[in-house]
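Progress note, sequence design subtask.
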């Protein structure tokens, strides 16, 4: 029986031949069948992508919004209680591990208060706790990066000149300072987005979210190698695509950047 299965899978051939056969099939979108479910890998992966994209995008919006708003506020109100509060949030955001945050959120809001559902994806409320858990760490890191970039720009000569000319403070902050401080946060935002799409293993496991991360964990535990390869290739594709889009966006944010 093992010999028949091995021949069917092509394991009786040389490893180089096996790789070339797999590469030829992969280039045509055929990654084989799942050893566990017996269905095409691409079909299974495609069914998991919407859940992961939904969780990743909501977490991304949460992390970027918190980072930009509180990071800018901390830079503008440097040395005040707002600055210290934002920096404290960033400290806890980077110190508390996501799996611990997820468990605490479930314990408080799902078990004790019964405000939010846990362990399923059947309503808009289901994504609140997973999104906060996934975006918490990135929100703290993005806050510190935005604050640092804004402080560097706010001390520059052209910002001081704009203030001396009597330009409104809101215009100075959002039109002159923020746009020029956006390069570093933009790079980090691209890494955050692709990290949310590909690095949701812990969050999806804690909340039983039916996405790529949980699928990859199950594939590893069940030795489903074709399915695991499909997950890795999909994640790699997201990495390359998002990094390319971030590079192209540089030219829109900073006119000094040109691609020849």
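Output:
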């Amino acid at each position: 029986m093992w010999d028949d299965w091995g021949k069917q899978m092509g394991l009786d051939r040389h490893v180089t031949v096996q790789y070339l056969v797999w590469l030829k099939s992969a280039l045509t979108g055929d990654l084989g069948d799942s050893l566990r479910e017996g269905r095409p890998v691409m079909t299974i992966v495609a069914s998991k992508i919407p859940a992961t994209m939904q969780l990743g995008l909501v977490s991304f919006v949460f992390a970027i919004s918190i980072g930009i708003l509180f990071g800018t506020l901390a830079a503008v109100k440097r040395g005040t209680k707002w600055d210290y509060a934002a920096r404290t949030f960033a400290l806890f955001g980077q110190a508390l591990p996501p799996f611990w945050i997820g468990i605490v959120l479930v314990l408080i809001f799902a078990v004790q208060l019964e405000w939010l559902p846990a362990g399923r994806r059947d309503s808009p409320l289901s994504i609140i706790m997973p999104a906060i858990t996934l975006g918490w760490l990135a929100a703290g890191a993005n806050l510190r990066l935005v604050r640092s970039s804004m402080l560097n720009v706010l001390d520059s000569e052209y910002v001081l000149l704009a203030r001396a000319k009597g330009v409104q403070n809101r215009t100075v902050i959002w039109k002159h300072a923020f746009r020029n401080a956006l390069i570093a946060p933009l790079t980090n935002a691209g890494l955050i987005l692709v990290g949310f799409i590909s690095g949701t293993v812990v969050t999806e496991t804690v909340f039983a979210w039916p996405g790529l991360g949980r699928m990859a964990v199950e594939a590893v535990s069940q030795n489903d190698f074709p399915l695991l390869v499909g997950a890795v290739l999909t994640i790699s594709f997201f990495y390359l695509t998002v990094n390319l889009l971030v590079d192209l966006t540089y030219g829109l944010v900073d006119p000094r950047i040109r691609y020849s």
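The radius of gyration is 23 Å. Work on this subtask will continue into the next period as scheduled.
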